[in-house]
User: Fold Adaptin ear-binding coat-associated protein 1 NECAP-1 from Leucogyrophana mollusca.
Amino acid sequence: MEGFDDEIESILYIGREISVYKIPPLKANEGHRANDWGDLAQPLWKGRLRFIEKSNTAALLFEDGSSGELFAKADYNPLKPCVEAVLDSSRYFVIRVEDAGKKAYIGMGFQERTDSFDFNVALQDYTKRAKAALNPPTPTTETSPSPHIPAGPKKDYSLKEGQTFSISIPGRASKQASASLLGSENSGGGASGGGIPLLPPPPGGGRKR
Assistant:
């Protein structure tokens, strides 16, 4: 991969001790099984696995744990993954590696299930990010109305020709009623006035002793 080694490298996962196996050809429509690889205690190779990302590419590197010498490399494409789980174990996988245009399939095994779980999570996280980068959301140019604004034609609240309106001010009506009442009292007690009659003076107009 041209220019791959000149870019900043991000390590997505490291498997400190993994085993590599030579696997038999795949039987049609049956899937791979680790039990078909012979004695799993006698792998073809042992070393470390690094899952790295550079720019928009990623790869699985099988390296010597001490010297870092490369044993095999598998370019990881999220649209065409090079990793396949076996049918009979969660610790073993089949990896498609390429060298100078030639493809080969090798078996890979982890010592612990927790290591294989972390490896799966790293693959899933990268695949999700890579697919999101390939399919970014399309921005919309049209602005949709706010859901908080009711739809429909605007109402016309302007006064038409000849229309009037009145404003009721609190307290004004009671003051007008009081003024009307006082006015009727001052006008006298005639029957025609319609006011409240005045009370007659008390009997015996003498002064109090």
Observations:
- Residues 113-134 form the longest helix (22 residues).
